[in-house]
Design brief:
Shape: globular
Largest sheet: 6 strands, mixed
CATH topology of the largest domain: D-Maltodextrin-Binding Protein, domain 2
CATH superfamily of the largest domain: Periplasmic binding protein-like II
Distance between the termini: 47 Å
Strand order of the largest sheet: 1-3-2-4-12-7
Radius of gyration: 22 Å
Mean pLDDT: 92
Number of domains: 2
Oligomer: single chain
Helix content: 40-55%
């Protein structure tokens, strides 16, 4: 196995920080036993001697895989090569290779799923799943992988990638500071006001106008109201009545946020929650273990709950990282063995110690659950099993989403700093219409 490690860029540094706050790194390759794989009714050695190249970036998932790849090489006789690059270097490089029709990487982490699907960069996986020489369905149990993740990676009824990580928007609550955990948006407003005392702010969330920041947590408010960013046909719906209502709620809640929070990203909010100056924070479930570590002000008093509902509907946003096979690869079947191995029950169960994975059974790993708190792990797994991905997928898998997201981000930021929700979303809608044609 040849590994080239390159300096981590700013984007990857943030991912590394997030990874440090996910799970304790305690697993090792020794925790994976060949016997867990040889009971599958396939020949793992059938492509022995092949060399696969991975297109990856510095990310908690790859940190986990790095420990286990020697076991895959021993099991299959397949050699694995990769460069561990920062996000700001890896993403452009992989896109450039794929756009040029390169035969490598054979397997790659998919940064922009919509672009990859529209460009034909991804090999459809359905035939590999049904080929009994390559996959033992009773062993692999594809339905154990969260349906939302599989749905996200399905285009024109073809599965183009496999989910490798899973996170869902939850409400982080310091249950020692909030006497009654809010179940509705109305209750959330009441609780935010009541919890704002002294140095503690009752509520905060992302306000930074970047398209990579505030549109994601705002989704949990918009989608619960029945709103959407783009419809099934890719048409923008930013200034819908549902989104305007959601943005008014979002802005009202930010009145109880720390000074300057209108420009905060997830990092600043997470730091405030960790340091004990924030009572509630709606964001990614991936932060749970880090926010409960021994040095956290919350420790065991920091717990997670489903996003507050609107008219009985709770709909937090969701995210699944995926990985797929290069449609130009000359080693597609060997690449599928790697992808199958990497997303299998044994690998995900062990890697759950390092990153929140996309298999339901992996969430039953007691050591991983202990770092989150068993009840919190159960809440997250249950939410992931039920969460709808359509509204998120319609937006985040659209090739032109970045332009729309930036306009939406600015509209949200301007509203929480005193602007009118309808006027700001009308402006964003006009930009989105132009961007999407």
């Amino acid at each position: 196995m040849r590994i080239i490690k390159t300096k981590i860029g700013i984007g990857a540094a943030l991912l590394a920080l997030a990874g440090a706050l996910l799970m304790p790194t305690t697993a090792s390759a020794a925790d994976l036993k060949d016997a867990d794989f040889t009971n599958a009714k396939i020949d793992w050695k059938q492509f022995s001697g092949t060399t696969l190249e991975l297109g990856v970036q510095t990310h908690p998932w790859m940190v986990a895989m790095e420990k286990y790849i020697p076991q895959f090489e021993r099991l299959t006789g397949i050699k694995v090569k990769y460069e561990l690059l920062g996000e700001d270097v890896a993403v452009p490089k992989i896109k450039q290779q794929l756009a040029a029709g390169s035969k490598t990487p054979d397997v790659f982490m998919v940064n922009a799923l919509g672009q990859a699907a529209a460009s034909g960069w991804l090999e459809p996986l359905d035939s590999y799943l049904t080929d009994t020489k390559l996959t033992d369905p009773d062993w692999y149990k594809v339905n154990d992988i969260f349906a939302g993740g599989r749905s996200l990676a399905t285009f024109n009824k073809k599965l183009l990638a496999m989910p490798i990580t899973a996170e869902v928007q939850v409400l982080f609550v310091r249950t020692d500071l909030v006497k009654k955990v809010p179940k509705t948006m109305e209750e959330l407003l009441v609780a935010a006001k009541a919890a704002t005392k002294g140095k503690v702010s009752g509520f905060s969330t992302r306000g930074n106008p970047s398209g990579n920041e505030v549109p994601w947590p705002f989704g949990g408010f918009a989608f619960a109201n029945g709103g959407e960013y783009l419809d099934d046909n890719g048409k923008p719906k930013l200034n819908s009545a549902a989104n305007i209502k959601a943005l008014k709620t979002y802005a009202s809640l930010m009145k109880y946020a720390p000074k300057g929070a209108s420009n905060w990203a997830w990092v600043e909010n997470q730091k405030a929650m960790y340091n004990g100056t924030l009572a509630m924070f709606p964001d990614s479930s991936a932060f749970t273990a880090g926010l409960r570590d021994a040095k956290s002000a919350g420790k065991t008093n920091l717990n997670v709950f489903p996003m507050p509902s609107v008219n009985g509907k709770s709909q937090g946003n969701v995210w699944f990282w995926t990985a797929g096979i290069n449609s130009k690869s000359e080693n597609k079947k060997a690449a599928w063995l790697f992808l199958q191995w990497a997303t299998s029950a044994p690998v995900t169960y062990e890697s759950q110690l390092d990153v929140t994975t996309a298999r339901s059974t992996a969430w039953k790993n007691p050591l991983a659950a202990a770092s989150m708190g068993q009840k919190n792990a159960d809440v997250i797994a249950d939410t992931l099993a039920k969460v709808e991905t359509k509204a998120m997928a319609n937006a985040w898998t659209n090739a032109n989403w970045p332009q729309v997201a930036d306009a939406l981000g600015r509209a949200i930021n301007k509203t929480i700093t005193g602007g009118d929700a309808k006027k700001e979303l009308d402006k964003a809608q006009a930009i989105a219409v132009k961007a999407l044609g």
